[in-house]
Amino acid sequence: MRQPKTKITALYLRISREDSSRDESYSIVNQNKLLTYMAKQMNLTNIKTYVDDGVSGSKLDREQFMVMCKDIEKGLVGVVMVKDLSRLSRDKSQANDLVEQFFPLHDVRFISVSDGTDSDEGEDEFLGFRTLMNESYARDISKKRKLTNVVKNNAKEPLSLPPYGYMKDPDGKGWVIEPEAAEVVRRIFQMSLDGKGVEQIASTLSKERILSPIYYWKSKGFNRGGVKTDREPHRWHVSTITGILAKQEYCGDIINHKTYAKTFKLKKRFDNPDKSIHRDVHEAIIDRAVWEQIDEKRRNKQRKRKGRDGTKNMFSGFLVCADCGKNLWFNINSGNADIRFFGCSNYKGNRGTCDDRHYIRVEFLENVILQEFRRLSQFAKKNEKAFAELIMGQAEQSNTEERQKKQKELYALNARNRELDKLFNRMYEDNVNGKIDDARFATMSKQYTAEQAEIAERVQTITSELSKQEAKAMTADVFLSVVRKYTRAKKLNERMLNELIERVEVFKTDKIDGVHYQRLRIHYHVIGAIEIPDTFPIPDIIIRTRKGVLVKYFPFQHAA
User: Are 205 and 341 in the same domain?
Assistant: First the structure.
């Protein structure tokens, strides 16, 4: 079969990190030199190169490989030439399908230079053997990489590239702070503490024309991956801000084995419930207490409900119904825009199941929380020793039975996850050997994957809860320093809420002698809900509603 002059001679070049360390002849430059020379020697014209640099041969969804396949399907390619068969694929079945079915179907001549294979000269009797050896090499590389990662993880070495704000330590194997980027990271966390949302933070950085992480690395000459989906180097996206706020590495920790693949052939990554977390390995950019506050807010935050004028209230996401546990929603009175209030999102009057609306006015709430903050800070200032003992005692109180129950559930979930992995591997082998048909494999695979996703989500929840329990005693002194900072506060703001409060339970009002008493239970970070001694009283906080109802605040310590 001869190639028509109008058709393309496709030179396919591929290299992975393992190949580059194996032999210099595998470099893209040398592959290109060899194939170009051989194409000219064979009088092949209309040469076009397709290059996948740094991509594994165990998967087919390589960018340029897919482009070449589309050109083949369009009838544009007459010849495909590679250095050796492993450049095409390291998967035995994939390579065989390409050479024996896909290329002949589209009248494409296939040449593998180092293997001495040319489809114009007939079938290659050793094709099956070569593809088997290539697959064995890929399997061996996968095993060696896993072993290397285990050794590195045991030495508390990071298995991933440093995030924005860090760079590789030139004198070691860890990370060191990259000052310019680290300052931007600190600003992002500071803006989040100040109550700004991820959209606002992204907009601010974009307006200030600060380089986004990918373009920042490029400007510094750092060889980093990532898809440059945006041609504007100063445009920050919400996903970037969200990712930065979620990174525990900024506390100084190393987190390895975040994801895993079920087999070396399947490149889809799954969330790993057995992550390896090494605390305080490198210098922190963000204080741990600050990161935990923002992380907790990020995990628990419900979508902030807007009022009719498009505004959001700083208490949104903090208030929960004491009876049903659902969030309270922010509302603006339709007849009087000055009346702003919260009500239970699960109220049965709005097709929910909660018996009471749990109505509370915003101005009343602001006054209560501010006075409670002042009372807390006065207690800390005038009797610091007693306050410190109280919050340390609160922080150290952990329910042993509850903790054991969570650990038992965690163990069972991890055991089930490992069992599913074994079942999946066995099922995969049965499918390859023809014991299970493709339809059955797809159905069972979907079921196992769905169950593992549920397990991963529950494991993450339990792990987070256990981690917070362990961290409370360690951060009690940090909470004390935050309280001191707001001793002279005259006005409430969202940053104060973020730094001090975890949530506020709103009870339904109790009517006594014509007065409605409103109870709130404030759960502070680290220490939970505490009862402040009567020696630090709170002034009467009273509000009269538009219907003439008198509402008075009823402090938590007096509530049975």
Answer: no
Cα separation, 466 vs 171, whole angstroms: 36
Phi (first) and psi of residue 221, to 5 degrees: 80, 15
As separate numbers, helices (DSSP H) first and strands (DSSP E) second, the chain gives 18, 20
Residue 349, beta-bridge partner list: none
Q: What is the helix (H) or strand (E) element at residue 520, kind and residue range?
A: strand 515-524
Q: 499 φ, ψ to 5°?
A: -80, -25
Distance from C-alpha of 103 to C-alpha of 110, rounded to nearest angstrom: 7
Q: Looking at residue 229, which CATH number applies to its domain?
A: 3.90.1750
- Separation of alpha carbons 536 and 379, rounded Å: 7
Tokens of 324: 């049903």
More confident residue, 230 or 452: 452
Domain count, the chain: 4
Q: What is the mean pLDDT of the chain?
A: 78
pLDDT tens-place string over residues 114-136: 777 788 776 555 444 444 554 55
pLDDT attached to residue 170: 82
**Which pLDDT belongs to residue 449?**
81
C-alpha span between 207 and 241 (Å, rounded): 15
Of 359, 313, 367, nearest to 547 by C-alpha is 359
Of the CA atoms within 13 Å of residue 257, those in its CB half-sphere come to 18
Residues 6+ apart with CB under 8 A from 374: 489
Cβ proximity of 440 and 428 under 8 Å: no
For residue 459, the enclosing domain spans: 396-469
pLDDT per residue as tens digits for the range 514-546: 888 888 998 887 677 877 877 777 888 888 776
Same domain, 31 and 53: yes
Same domain, 498 and 369: yes
Burial tier of 447 (Cβ tally within 10 Å: 0-12, 13-18, 19+): exposed
Let me know whether 344 and 400 are in one domain.
no
pTM surpassing 0.70?
A: no
- Whether 14 and 102 map to the same domain: the answer is yes
Task: Please give the distance of CA 207 from its chain centroid, rounded to a whole number.
Answer: 26
Q: Are 146 and 257 in contact (CB under 8 A)?
A: no
What is the predicted pLDDT for the residue at 134? 47
Residue-level pLDDT at 146? 62
With a cut of 90, say whether residue 183 has pLDDT above it. Answer: yes
Do 87 and 202 lie in a common domain? Answer: no
Residue 190 and residue 46: Cα distance in Å, rounded?
57
β-sheet bridge partners, residue 271: 259
Q: Measure the CA–CA gap between 128 and 314, rounded to whole angstroms.
A: 66
Domain check: are 463 and 490 in the same one?
no
